[in-house]
Amino acid sequence: MQSGLPDQPSPDDVYPDWGRYPGDEYRRAANGPRDSLIAENPTTDGHIFDPRVWDDVARDRLVAELRALQPKVVLLSAVSAAHRYALEMAELAKAHVPHCVVVIGGRHADETIRYNRTLGTAELSWSSTVEVIRDGRARQVVDFVVAGDGAPLLDLLLQAVSLVATPGFGPTRAEEVLDAMSLLASADEDLAGSGTVVALCPDETLVQPVLGRRLTSTELPSPYEAFSIRARFGIFTQANSSVLGSRTAHMMTLDACPFKCTFCSESIQVSNRPTRFAVSETQHAAARIQQLIHWGAEAAFFDDPVFWGGNWKAITDFCHDLMDLCAGQPADVPFEWGAQLTVDVVLNRAKSAEVSAGLDLMRRSGCTYIYIGIESMAQRVMNNVGKNLLRRNPEAWVSKVREALTTIRSHGIRVGSSVLFGLDGEDRETIKETIEEIGRLIDDELLIMASPNILTYHPGTAITAAHGQDRLDYHSRKDNRPPFTYFEEAYPEVVSKLLTEDDIWYIHEAAAKRWGSVRNSAAEALTGVVS
Prior knowledge:
Layout: H1 24-29, H2 56-69, E1 73-77, H3 83-96, E2 101-105, H4 107-112, E3 113-116, E4 121-124, H5 129-134, E5 144-148, H6 150-164, H7 174-187, E6 194-200, E7 205-211, E8 232-233, E9 246-251, H8 268-271, H9 282-294, E10 299-302, H10 312-325, E11 336-341, H11 343-346, H12 352-364, E12 367-375, H13 379-382, H14 397-410, E13 414-421, H15 428-443, E14 449-454, H16 462-466, H17 501-515, E15 529-530
Parallel strand pairs: 1-2, 2-5, 9-10, 10-11, 11-12, 12-13, 13-14
Antiparallel strand pairs: 3-4, 5-6, 6-7, 8-9, 8-15
Helix pairs in contact: 2-3, 6-7, 9-10, 10-12, 15-17
């Protein structure tokens, strides 16, 4: 009797069945959020549940997909603001697929778990998934939490799952998976990735550090190799006149911001791992852009806190590489891109000629938009931020912001900004000062978009510690309400203690009145992304 199995074992017998990679035709036709069950879409792109809003409709869709697919493993990625929803998704997964393995990763995990190599212990924030489950604030619906270099650590973890998972619908023991993972790691002479995997077992919590080498950008696959480009960026319209903007891919040239702003969760002070693409890898980044254009991207935005870490040589090399690679692109295929810079990177007095040449090259290579974090226009507030301010011959922040924006606009590049309320030194007078000064920049056509935001405490940031906010509720499931819903990430329990609810109402109403249509809404991301 034939068993139906091949004579020689195949990796497909034990590795996850992700489906096939999308074909070019599928990629170019994909548009907007996925609206079909995974069972009807057997590509890697179809294995993603991507709710743009977590509501009853999204909840019913997730349940339907869980029942249809009966997954052996469910992977969840969440920033801190979305962690409460990730826990609810994990609970639904365990309810409808009881023996599935649930893994949580993403920025919230990175912010709340640190491995101390000297002591050989994991330091867990009160807000971490691990602590939330261990002390009973959430049910035990998560099996593993992954913090650090997500791609190689997840690959190692899933190899271990494939080795010990019970066939069919039987349970998989987390402690056995971690044992297998430890053996795989110790047997790998070229172990890749650095971070921490925590297993939440019924009676104990186990920690597995992974101390492998950091991967270069050339070793990491493009995120879009397995997934379609679906986001639309309202700031890009050259290729698409839709109100939602052009189909936009996202790229990164940094793992962490090299600067040390007190409020920022992307700072090297939080991640403790300042890495970036090597300057010699600019051609690789440009080649990825070329591939994204082939896959249907009409625009690209670099989500790095600072484009190429503010290294103007790298920026210049990238622009040259991009122009060289795209020289043969058909003229009827418009493409544009944008990136984030800082005021002081633009106002680098020692390299003013290099900055000017770099901005000119950015524009010539297709850059039409730069996003800058202005934060506040009150000098009293900015003195406390720890932003990359020039300490020699200090200048007034308001004049520096205006000069930086004028410099960028002189090269034909539009500018958008984030404005952050609730930093140290903030009161009603500084709020009024910032709203008015931003209004003047808008009046002078130096800003085409301004996004008001409320300081939200993130685990690990300097301002969170300084304000004594060591217990942040990112786990309770509750409906948010105005005025907090008018701002990204804002919830009553985690916003700046320097702002009253009346202050937040004032910010919402005064910014809308003074900034008009240039004000970015809460439905759009900080960088203007429209989902």
